[in-house]
Every structure is written in C-alpha cells, then in structure tokens.
Design brief:
The protein is an alpha+beta fold and about 375 residues long. Helices cover about 15% and strands about 35% of the residues.
C-alpha cells in the first residue's frame, strides 16, 4: 500500500457512536532526531502528536493512544464528519532544535531527522450537552461547549488516498517476497529486488556477501556513493586520514572508492549511528554476488531517502580529531550519486547477532523491538 502523501488513520471506537461522530485531526510524527555538537552527537526518538486545528475544546494531542491502541486506516466504510486540517505539519514539527534541543549543548553544528514517519490521525468525538470522547464514551471535560461551532470548520473526505501496488515481479510475473513492513520486495525466480517509487515498483541494485553460511541471518545495508565537497574524501586512503585511523596507508587504498554504509533497517538511534559508523570505517571489500540469500533476511524498512539524510551526520562522527569538526562541518556538502542494497551475513548467538569478519554485534532483542519504531 502506498499513500498519495501520508497515511490517514482513525482511533477505534464503539460502533454505536458512528451516527453523529466528528473526527478531529492530529498530526503524528515518529522518527529519530540527531543533534551534532562539537564534542558529541545527541539523539532522541520521538513519537508525538498535536492538533491539526487549533481549538481549546479538544485535547492537545492523542497522547499515548497512537502507540497503545491498534489504529485503523480510514476506509470507505468510515462514517462521520472529518474535519480538514488547518495547520500545516511544517508549522508544528519544523523547528526540532527549539522543540527537542533545549538541553543540548551549544553550538549545534548539524541536525538530522532520520526514519521519520508523518501521518494524520483522526480522533472520534461526538457532541451532546458536552464534548464526548467517543473512545471512552465519556465527556472530555466538564466545560460547556456553547462557543464550539463546528460549522466554522471545513469538512474533508480523507478516503481514497491509498494506492495498491501489485506484488508480482514486474520482470517475470513471479510472486514477490517481503515482510509486512518491508520496503524492498524480492523475486527469487529472476533474482531481482524491487523498491516503491511513486505509484510503481522500480528495480533496485543489490548483492550479498559471497561467504555467508547457510544458517546466517542477513541484515541489509544501503551502500551509498556520494560526491563530498569541503573535505578530501574519495578513497579508503582518504578515510584513513580523515578519521585518523591507526593504519599505514597502502598504495592500492588510493584506488578503493569510499562509500557510506547505512543500516537499511530501523533500530534505536544510538545503535543506528554506531552500526553506520562501524561498517563505514571498515569499508567492506568482500566478494559480492547478485543473488538473494536462501536463509533468513531481516526486512529493509528504512527508506533510501532517510539513509541519504544521515550521510553528513555519519561523516561528522568519523572526523578526527574532534576539535577540528566545528571548522570543517559547515563547509561540507554530501551529494548521493548511487545506491545499492547489500546483505550482510550475521551469525546467531545466544543473545546477539555477530558479524565475525568485522567484529560487529547487535543485540537480538534490540533488533526485534525496533520493528515497532
């Protein structure tokens, strides 16, 4: 399912209240926020909602309901009056530095919003002598609603904004494989992968490490080649100098192109940044094969655009010594040029997934719980 712009949901409520229900809109934002300072990177994971129409009679947000309740898509069967949002979401969530960065040490050299998801949630209410919460069937407050005139607000029809894309391989017509939250779908018949672009699927360049064991768990990473200005970083040899790594530069490293490696899956902010930095520093040069792994594959649920948003942040974490960051970062621009999806084999241990070649470990519970981010 692909929305025209963003998904629209309703909070579930008692069917008996459908006749005179009024749906009040709330913007919801989920995602990771990063604030890069001269000495460290602070991160936040946020899941917030706020009125899309300013009105003191209605609650300011839906609170934890969007997380605790099983919200539903707006469907053609949804009956009631849907109020049209008046406040654009940019007005509410545009200034994250002011909203969430108050306790962050200054100066903030760079900030990024990664893995962000914007949606519109309609909360059901109905009007009697008071304004009632249709979920609880209780008054919102004891205040009268003499000054509440919903005729002042425009109604809208939020239905019909979802498009369905066939999960048949556009190349050979075979059934595509993919988990419920996956963005990348796989065709094992013609060994191809597909990614939603607009209202259709576009073939995606992919590969996997050739040496993975039969029982390996494959985690996906976006490998991104980018043009970087403001700093000399074109090869692995340049990375050794930029990151001040304790290695002697070898001649062939000047011919090894530098690439960013970004997790293609959602995970907690601190873990996300650690994994991206670890794999980018390693710059894997293993043999690759363009074949879908036969063993378990973790879903790719972080969009390419969000991975690209993280590139300057990852680079900021690599620059050493740290005291030079403030002078360098403002002049640096990162322009992504090509993207490929690479599957990394990890061995399953008791509590961790371990990449033995590069000594990278990821807690299994952390990865499992991150599916809800």
């Amino acid at each position: 399912m692909i929305p025209d712009d963003y998904f629209r949901y309703v909070l579930p409520h008692k069917p008996a209240n459908n006749g005179d229900v009024v749906y009040f809109p709330y913007w919801r934002f989920k995602g990771m926020l990063f604030f890069c300072g001269p000495h460290k990177v602070d991160e936040r994971y946020v899941d917030i909602s706020q009125q899309a129409i300013r009105n003191h009679n209605f609650p300011f947000s839906v609170g934890i309901r969007s997380q605790a309740m099983k919200i539903q898509f707006v469907t053609p069967d949804s009956v009631g009056r849907f109020l049209k949002p008046v406040i654009e979401h940019q007005q509410i969530f545009g200034d994250f530095e002011k909203r969430f960065g108050r306790n962050i040490a200054r100066p903030i050299l760079h900030q990024a919003h990664i893995g962000e998801t914007l949606s519109l949630i309609y909360a059901p209410f109905f009007i009697r002598d008071k304004l009632y919460d249709a979920v609880l069937d209780k008054p919102v407050s004891e205040m009268s609603i003499e000054n509440l005139d919903l005729a002042d607000y425009t109604e809208t029809d939020p239905r019909g904004h979802i498009r369905f894309v066939s999960t048949l391989c556009p190349h050979c017509g075979w059934d595509l494989d993919g988990e419920r939250d996956a963005l990348v779908l796989r065709c094992k018949n013609c060994q191809s992968t597909w990614y939603p672009v607009g209202r259709k699927l576009k073939q995606l360049k992919f590969a996997r490490m050739a040496h993975g064991d039969a029982d390996a768990v494959y985690l996906p990473f976006w490998r991104i080649r980018a043009d970087i200005s403001g700093i000399e970083l074109k090869s692995y040899a340049d990375l050794i100098k930029v990151a001040n790594l304790p290695k002697a530069v070898q001649e062939d490293w000047h011919r090894t192109a530098f690439r960013f490696w970004v997790p293609a899956f959602k995970v907690r902010p601190r873990i996300f940044l650690r994994l991206a930095g670890q794999v980018t520093v390693v710059q894997p040069r293993d043999e690759l094969v363009s074949r879908i792994p036969d063993s378990r594959i973790h879903p790719s649920n972080l969009p390419v655009a969000e991975a690209i948003e993280s590139l300057k942040l990852i680079l900021a974490g690599l620059i050493k010594p740290r005291k030079t960051l403030a002078d360098k970062l403002a002049a640096i621009n990162v322009d992504a040029k090509s993207v490929a999806l690479i599957y990394f084999p990890f061995k399953e241990a008791h509590v961790e997934y371990i990449q033995p070649d590069y000594q990278i470990a990821l807690n299994k519970n952390v990865l499992s719980l991150s599916r809800n981010l």
